[in-house]
Amino acid sequence: MILRHPLHRYRGFLLDIDGVLVRGGTPLPNAPDALAHLRTIGPVVLLTNNSTKSRQIAAARLSERGVPVCASEVIPSSFIAARYLQREHRSVRFWYLGEGGIPEEMALAGHVLAEPLQAEWIVVGMDRALTYAKLASALGALLAGARLLATNRDATYPTETGLVPGGGAVVGALEGMGFPPEVVVGKPSRIAYHVALEALGIAPEEALMIGDRLETDIAGGHGVGMDTALVLSGISTIAGIEQTGIRPTWVALDFPALVRGEVLTL
Length: 266
Ligand SMILES: [Mg+2]
Known about the structure:
It is a single chain. By secondary structure, this protein is an alpha/beta fold. The protein has helices at about 30-40, 55-65, 75-90, 100-110, 130-145, 165-175, 190-200, 215-225, 240-245, 255-260, and strands at about 10-15, 20-25, 25, 45-50, 75, 95, 110-115, 120-125, 145-150, 155-160, 160-165, 185, 205-210, 225-230, 250. Strands 5-4-1-13-14-15 form a 6-stranded parallel sheet. Strands 7-6-8-9-12 form a 5-stranded parallel sheet, sandwiched between helices. Strands 2-3 form a two-stranded antiparallel sheet. Magnesium ion binds near residues 19 and 20.
């Protein structure tokens, strides 16, 4: 029975957060215990397209809400953006449309916040304080030759009170002005998975991506050669597998069921 457990063949795990561990900020039933158990099989990182928080703050918020995690276990798209630009260009002058996670992680990686017209890169994510004036500043910077990096292009973001505009809404505003992003680092981009695998120190074939969205979590995992597990506690459904043709390696009702080894036969 133990030998047939689907998770024992992997050396590490990438987990989405929303729809897997929490929903609208509240932990899903038994998810914290399942996370603790998963860590006994192999190291875990939480890979999220949310750019609004730094690793430190994201870990603190999850811990406060009853999912104890440390900062080194969280990989938000703010961190992925900073790491990507560090690897490609060492240090850049940047300006941003987004929330606190972007400038915090960019500064930690050695990048320098500049005035829009002096910026080499504009880094964009979900921004709940977006204004026309900020969009105009971004346009000025892009017309002056700044390059555009999107942390993610998620259309919406789930909250306790329903969906709100996500990072994709801000990216879309810039696209509407004629400036599509030069690079998108969040899932399903390969960049996100490579930063997460680098944090785990393992190869794609040794890792499992666990998520609730076929088009991002699962498709992106397959794109870098990883096995994947879809949990049905979030966005995607079994019918979605047929509709999209994106076939996860494993499907489970929710994350605790997956960790117990209860996978569905489709
Ligand atoms: Mg999700």
